[in-house]
Fold this protein.
Amino acid sequence: MALGTASVMLAVVANRMVGAMGSAVVGVLLALLFHLVNFALGLFSPAIHALRLHYVEFFGKFYSPGGVEYRPFGHWKEA
């Protein structure tokens, strides 16, 4: 969902920059650049999601928590 939101906002910024530019040629070139970046983001989106899911699924297999259990206000119970 974050990639979709970023894609929409990037498209909105690109479209508004075209209208704000004094020169149509510069505006179109900047919009083309932004839309190409947006297109690349859309192409890599499935790979980004797959990598994120692999990270989440395998994180527990390679991480061993250590230390002391967190007990807020635990010092009041020991008295």
User: Anything to note?
Assistant: The chain has a mean pLDDT of 81.
